[in-house]
Amino acid sequence: MANILVIDDNLDICNLLKRFLTTKGHQVETTLSGKNGIELVKSQSFDLILCDFKLRDIEGPDILQEVKKISPETKLAIITGYSDVRVAVEVMKKGAFDYVVKPLIPDEILSLIDRAMNTPTLIPVTEENLEKKKLKTSETPQLDTDEYIWGKGEASKSLLKEVSLVAPTNFSVIIYGESGAGKENIARTIHNLSERKDKPFVPIDCGALTRDLAGSELWGHEKGAFTGAQTAKQGQFEIADGGTIFLDEIANLSYDIQIGLLRLVQEKKLRRIGGVNDKTIDVRIIVASNENLKDSVSKGKFREDLFYRFNEFTINVPALRERGKDIMLFAEHFLSAANIELKKDVKGFSKEVSELFMKYEWPGNLREMRNIIRRSLLLTDGDNVEISAIPHEIVHANKFNFQGEPSQNPSNSSQPIVQKQEELVDLKEIAAQAEADAIKKALLENNYNKTKVAKQLGIDRKTLFNKIKLHNI
Predict the structure, then answer these.
(1) Reported CATH class of domain 402-473
(2) Residue 344 · residue 380 · CB < 8 Å
(3) Suppose 185 and one of 148, 167, 313, 441 were both cysteines; which one would form an S-S bond, judging by CB atoms 3.0 to 4.6 Å apart?
């Protein structure tokens, strides 16, 4: 049972929702005024607020900001008559839990309430909130999103504890983890739990930066700095000023860019390419790598002094296969999200599928799981996802004989010996299977560094990503 507040200047909507949700066992308050709604939040405790985007006195996003100040643990969902993705983006960026589009569908409202009641809320641990809600100082904040949720197992609890410990500081952080394990989400959580949360969070895939353009992208450039620089450009570090910058696959940065990065870290100043003046900036740097940076230092690929600058705090993100019972928790989360996306109502997974998920190695981790569940749901007509809807290569993954598991420590990665499948239908299937085998082998050999994999296979990154998606790797 949830305690719900409905804020809508349409009396019929208020009455309809109150009657319907009351019959479902929920406690419901309604108001036609945004200002009155804010006063109700001050005097009462609500689990969820359903608020119209356009009100006569105050707009929904403004109410959202007030609610976050008064009662951070209360979730707010926007009701809008404008089926516009820009509305969704705006309210979600400002912290809304979700949004629904008129005309309201009863099952959609019930699903939203169920997710709101079962999704942990980000509660910043501040003196004000500790006093207001009498929280224990040992409690840790949580942040769930459509892309990532925190599990309940020991590995997940340990990870969350480390994140909440380092988040309030200005420490630089190195995040290690396999591809698809959620490193960017961890970095974003650190930012959202810090005092910089209202400033920009800027993620950069260093593996996608070419040697020639990396400097311009990171530091910016002045007009005429080089051929083609027809206008001045702000660099990503300038954009992130006051906030957090996340450098993913940092080991891919060239040596000269590493020198510039070291100067920036030491002096907290940058100079645009072609510029003559330095600009002071304040940016927290979080980096991620799926290869051990100490090994990169020993191989001469990464500057030792830069490594020690970044190595103030290290977080190891466990692979999905190491999450135990949380594997099915993640699966159910992605199932719920896919149900909404595909407008389906699949209840769960068959016992056979659940057992398969628990045994499967998940080399692509959470990203792979999300894609597999979305595809499987598309092929499901009944109440449960059956084994027939799971991709062939996942069901028969045991036909690949791997010598050991992919290691979280890149220096310990093993080499796979891929056996041919016994039953291949035709030449197209044989070719597709061989291509999938080659990509999997290259991923393991290069510690899931897609830039290196693409180079080894003689294809560009975009083609590699398309083939990974095609083969559900």
Answers:
(1) mainly alpha
(2) yes
(3) 148
Query: What's this model's pTM, rounded to 2 decimal places?
Result: 0.57
Q: Give the DSSP letter string of 144-204.
A: --SS----SSHHHHHHHHHHHHHTTS---EEEE--TTS-HHHHHHHHHHTSTTTTS-EEEE
Indicate the CATH number of 154-316 among 3.40.50.300, 3.40.50.1100, 3.40.50.360, 3.30.70.3340: 3.40.50.300
Q: Where are the domains of the chain?
A: 3-118, 154-316, 321-399, 402-473
CATH number of 321-399, picked from 1.10.1790.10, 3.30.460.10, 1.10.8.60, 3.90.650.10 = 1.10.8.60
Peptide bond into 103 cis (omega under 30): yes
pLDDT in tens, the chain (473 residues): 899 999 998 898 999 999 999 999 999 999 999 999 999 999 999 999 999 888 888 888 889 989 988 988 899 988 876 545 456 566 766 778 877 777 788 877 888 888 788 765 544 433 444 344 333 333 444 455 555 677 888 888 889 889 988 999 989 999 999 988 989 999 999 999 999 999 999 999 888 887 778 888 898 888 887 777 778 888 899 999 999 999 999 998 988 899 999 989 988 898 888 888 889 999 999 999 988 999 999 998 999 999 999 998 999 999 999 999 899 999 999 999 999 988 999 999 999 999 999 999 998 899 899 989 998 998 998 999 999 999 887 887 765 444 334 444 443 433 333 333 444 445 556 667 778 888 888 888 887 788 888 888 888 787 888 788 777 77
| CA-based torsion, 46, 48, 50, 56: positive or negative | positive
b/e 389-417 (16+ beta carbons within 10 angstroms → b): bbbebbbebeebebeeebebebeebeebe
Q: The tokens 């991923």 sit on which residue?
A: 443
Contacts of 421 (CB under 8 A, 6+ apart): 396, 399, 433
